[in-house]
Here is the input.
Amino acid sequence: MQVSDGLDKTPSWKTVPPLQKESLPLLVVQGLSKRFEGHDLWKNVSFTLHASETVSICGASGSGKSTLLFAIGGLETVQSGSIVFQGKPIIGGENASIQGIGYIFQQYHLIEELTVRENIQYPLWVQTRTRAVPNCWEEIIETLGLESLLDRLPTHLSGGEQQRVVIARTLLTQPTLLLADEPTGSLDEATGARVMELLLQTCRLMHTGLILVTHSVAFSKQTDRQMILKGGSLHEP
Ligand SMILES: Nc1ncnc2c1ncn2[C@@H]1O[C@H](COP(=O)(O)OP(=O)(O)O)[C@@H](O)[C@H]1O
Ligand SMILES: [Mg+2]
Here is the structure.
């Protein structure tokens, strides 16, 4: 099925130039602390992520994983510390997404009045100001099993289907850093495995850095590095 009728195509995603070895770290997090109502959620969180590196964060429910991803993405204030993305500081709490960062969060934020296709295309329109879709469109839509859902409204989708729409929407913007909060949380085992494979494959092809929050030990082992958030500290065993 032709899913991108009438739309131009930009050059293939597989033509991304190789990485410069001496390039800056993608993300440097230093001494980050978050306090809610007099209680430290986490303290002195520091790590560096290089371009195209993938890392997983595991931790008990309530340990502050989502809050940490929000903070890294500039959507949450912190009490102390710094976040530098591609050499530029991220100021928390400005409530605007940052150019180059892709977000797959647990709140889907789909626009109810737009179809699935329009929801997926919307950030691309904003980003490129054209109706062009990248060549990876068909592969992503197909792998996520969204072909037959493109003309539906998000309210007519299950939770797992909405989660796949969010993943497609984010991957198609080809971010430099992808923040994914339990992206397979609403999916069955087989679909979850397929989605994880797509996420990791896309990151490899696009040299995208990935911070993956997951409860799955199996998925966490598929990233280059593993980190654990426990007792308010982020450890790398
Ligand atoms: N705005 C807030 N005010 C007070 N406490 C909050 C706020 N946001 C999150 N929390 C608390 O921080 C803790 C960690 O939340 P969260 O980051 O969602 O953890 P996780 O993703 O690891 O399950 C929870 O106990 C939650 O109640
Ligand atoms: Mg969470």
Residues 189-206 form the longest helix (18 residues).
